[in-house]
Design goal:
Layout: E1 6-10, H1 20-29, E2 34-37, H2 44-61, E3 64-68, H3 71-76, E4 81-84, H4 91-98, E5 102-107, H5 110-118, E6 123-126, H6 144-151, E7 158-161, H7 169-174, E8 179-181, H8 192-209
Parallel strand pairs: 1-2, 1-8, 2-3, 3-4, 4-5, 5-6, 6-7, 7-8
Bound molecules: 4-methyl-5-hydroxyethylthiazole phosphate.
């Protein structure tokens, strides 16, 4: 299933026009198969409330639900998993809390990717592929070549993130990404549903070409 992620949708409270819950509903209706709730500004109560609602919608629609960073909230709302950064809780510790649930880890190079796989990560987020202003501390762009290098070093699925737009999507898919996260290109667009449909169509046609 994770090998077939396609567009991996991530909420963003800085860019949203409708709120994370409504954006998630729109994304699910437009066919997205995996959603990550990423919320850096709200207090814990509100985050839990939103995560619970998105978890419910995902459960009802067969969409995978991942919580960014917060293992406790992921566990409380019975999410399908968590996505961790290099500075977050170590995978082994998150595994103790989450058991068999999905754990994704952000990686920037082959070494981190191999370590993540050895520690039991279920998938990798390779970041940032291109320069991005959505996450200020994302670091230097690693380029599509890093996707190919990482993919040839590990067997777990890879989702590419950072600076991906419709114009460079083909390059990212051709480099070997199993999925793509596109935040400003989706949440930041005036018509989220139209954008999600368009991106998914493009991913499907690129996959068909392979
Ligand atoms: N993690 C690494 S880059 C990034 C995150 C959450 C933001 C990606 O946003 P955009 O707008 O698709 O570049």
């Amino acid at each position: 299933m994770l090998e077939d992620m396609g567009l991996y949708f991530i909420t963003d409270s800085g860019l949203t026009k409708n709120g994370a819950v409504e954006d998630s509903r729109i994304a699910i209706d437009a066919g997205v198969k995996i959603i990550q709730y990423r919320e850096k500004s709200l207090g814990e109560g509100k985050r839990l409330e939103e995560a619970l609602e998105i978890a419910r919608m995902c459960r009802n629609s067969g969409t995978i639900f991942i919580v960014n960073n917060d293992v406790e909230i992921a566990s409380k709302v019975n999410a399908d998993g968590v996505h961790l950064g290099q500075g977050d809780m170590p995978i082994e510790k998150a595994r103790e809390v989450l058991g068999k649930k999905i754990i994704g880890l952000t990686v920037h190079n082959v070494g981190e990717a191999i370590d993540a796989q050895e520690c039991g990560a279920d998938y990798l987020g390779a970041s940032p592929i291109f320069a991005t202003t959505t996450k200020i501390d994302a670091g230097e762009a690693i380029g599509p070549g890093a996707i190919t290098a990482i993919k040839s070093s590990v067997i777990i699925p890879l989702v590419a993130i950072g600076g991906i737009q419709l114009e460079n999507l083909e390059e990212v898919m051709n480099a070997g990404a199993d999925g793509v996260c596109m935040v400003s290109a989706t949440v930041g667009h005036k018509d989220l549903a139209e954008r999600v449909h368009k991106i998914r169509e493009k991913i499907n046609s690129l996959r068909g070409k392979k």
